[in-house]
Amino acid sequence: MSRLLVVGVPGDNFWRNRRASPRGVTKFVAFHPLPMGDAAGTLAAQSSPRHETEDVQRLTKISSRGQIMQRVQQLKKLGRRVQKGFTLIELMIVVAIVGILAAIAIPQYQDYVTRSRWSENITSVAALKMAVAQCLQENGGVLASCDTVARLTATVGYPGIQNPPNGAVALTPATAAIVITGAAALPACTVTMAPVVGTNAVTWNMATGGGATCTRAQTGV
């Protein structure tokens, strides 16, 4: 029969089992079979200070190496998280796309705003158009009889011209055409509405003037 005796940290010839040290350093416990009849003082295996020092140094190196590898893994994970952002080329592509869209969208939006203001101008003279049409019907279609505000007031009781917020309105002598001139918020364009006397109704011919930049894209006419 044999018994197990703890003898500290022996040489490499003994079987070792690990246990945790209070200082975090792994020590080794050796179990050496001894005959039952041997005295406790006849221990064949003695603890070797040199072996113990070498074991501690080797374990310290292993522990440090493990910490280094763990730190390397952490840095790799951090690098992968950082690489999830946008690169400079991707940002430049996005900026270029935004610039192209802006170059197309901004002029179209400006034209839309301008057309909306001109539409408001044209709508605002609806009462004046009605007064001219009634005056022409009562005066046998004679344009010169309805070419001033005074004649319209005398004939159909027209109260007077109200200028729209984005332009100015005037009647053309002899033709009774209504001319709208764009205000400062609009390009220096004009919209002319000339009455055409028919058999049963008065229609209007509309035209844009004022320069090469005054087109249908600006006034909607």
TrEMBL record:
For the keyword Hydrolase, the answer is no
Per the record, a Pfam family? N_methyl
Q: Which SUPFAM superfamilies match?
A: Pili subunits (SSF54523)
Tell me which UniProt keywords the record has, alphabetically: Membrane, Methylation, Transmembrane, Transmembrane helix
Domain of life, per UniProt, equals: Bacteria
Database matches in InterPro entries: N_methyl_site, Pilin-like
> Could you confirm whether the keyword Transmembrane helix appears in this record?
yes
According to the record, the segments passing through the membrane are: 86-106
State the family named in the UniProt similarity comment for this chain.
Answer: Belongs to the N-Me-Phe pilin family.
NCBIfam families to which the protein is assigned, alphabetical: IV_pilin_GFxxxE
Record-given protein name? Fimbrial protein (Modular protein)
